[in-house]
UniProtKB/TrEMBL annotation:
The keyword Iron does not apply. GO terms for molecular function: FMN binding; metal ion binding; phosphopantothenate--cysteine ligase activity; phosphopantothenoylcysteine decarboxylase activity. This is Coenzyme A biosynthesis bifunctional protein CoaBC. It catalyses: (R)-4'-phosphopantothenate + L-cysteine + CTP = N-[(R)-4-phosphopantothenoyl]-L-cysteine + CMP + diphosphate + H(+); N-[(R)-4-phosphopantothenoyl]-L-cysteine + H(+) = (R)-4'-phosphopantetheine + CO2. The chain holds residues 177 to 400 of 409 of the full protein. The lineage of its organism: Bacteria, Pseudomonadati, Pseudomonadota, Gammaproteobacteria, Chromatiales. Keywords: Decarboxylase, Flavoprotein, FMN, Ligase, Lyase, Magnesium, Metal-binding, Multifunctional enzyme.
Amino acid sequence: LDTVFATGALAGLSVLITAGPTREPLDPVRYLTNRSSGKMGYALARAAREAGARVTLVSGPTAIAPPPGVECVHVETAQQMHEAVMSRVAQAQVFVATAAVADYRPASIADQKIKKDAARRSLELERNPDILAAVAALPQRPLVVGFAAETQDLERNARAKLMKKGLDLIAANDVSGGRGFDADDNALTLLWPGGGTTLPLQSKEQLARQLVAVIADRMGEANS
Ligand code: CTP
Ligand code: CA
């Protein structure tokens, strides 16, 4: 593992990473969001930088500062994240989607605060673009790495996402019982077409370094 960092296994490469939650406004004072601290994506940005890569982080709102030497583009909504990614992905050799993107946004945004009147209300939602699938579908694409947050059937659901979106690598995360979210520690199951490995419970910083080593390995595989 140390050789990955000592030799700068990602030197000369550009890595684009999404991180954090997205925020989907409902009215001027309310929004829908996902649980995500951004820790995994920021740790990955740091590790990729330390392995010699040029790193751009497209991040939803988080409480953490971008690691040194990492360019950070701040966004709020899934649509903004989608645009920020699509306008930069042509320069990247590796794309990693760690963001907890809201799958849906309110179909309309009220321009005034919604008042409480009716005893019951329903909310119409519209699908957001799938950023990871959009990058994977590009004719000229980087190595594409996704995450999968699952509460059940971790490996089966993650492998289905890997195949369906045509990814090069997926990092599956067991989030049953709220695990993995605000924690500093996590475990990951890594799957790629024809293979896989598990990274046992450890700090997100260490986990990120191991994931970078596997990404460098997959890059080597793709170029051989
Ligand atoms: N993702 C994305 N854009 C979206 C939704 C998800 O880029 N609009 C990315 C996430 O960053 C993650 C991967 O897709 O890398 C999987 O996200 P996940 O929520 O686990 O899966 P979905 O494909 O959204 O499917 P579902 O929520 O129905 O399980
Ligand atoms: Ca989702």
